[in-house]
Design a protein that fits this description.
Elements (H helix, E strand, L loop, with lengths): L8 E3 L15 E4 L1 H11 L3 H8 E3 L5 E6 L2 H5 L5 E2 L16 H5 L10 H10 L3 E7 L1 H12 L8
Antiparallel strand pairs: 1-6, 2-4, 3-4, 4-5
The chain binds iron/sulfur cluster.
Length: 153
Amino acid sequence: MAFYHTTPLRFKCTQCSQCCYGGKYAYVRTNPKEIERIIDYMGIDSECFKNDYLVKLVDHGYGIRMKRNLSQTLTKKKGHCILLNKEGKCSVYPVRPTQCRTYPFWPEILISEDKWNKEGVRCEGINQGDVIEIDDIEEQKQRSINADIVINE
Ligand code: SF4
């Protein structure tokens, strides 16, 4: 049984944007339907978007690129999502990918209480706010797993 069935999880997003920074991740996973919605939202040419903002993954999926500023380049850090604006906020928030919507309820974070708490170093919303219902956690987790095929509502 997953640990969060016996240990209540609390979470409240503060919109600090730290989850938009790479950490160990080199891209933000997305899918063709989400890409279409982002292109429409940005009003950008689709070829330009694909060339400038996307990486093709080895499993034929798509990822939104990470961008590095000078200090991140110098320290060889992975940088942040290229879609963050100058204020450090998501520029496509209403149409953001499922991967972003379902964070931090990803399987690799929910694998143990230790992983969940360690992710709290990155995400200040972890262990804050109200307890999240188990059904909600399971739903977010499943949506994250199906991110390549799920179309956002
Ligand atoms: S790191 Fe956590 S608290 Fe900050 S924006 Fe992301 S989900 Fe919200």
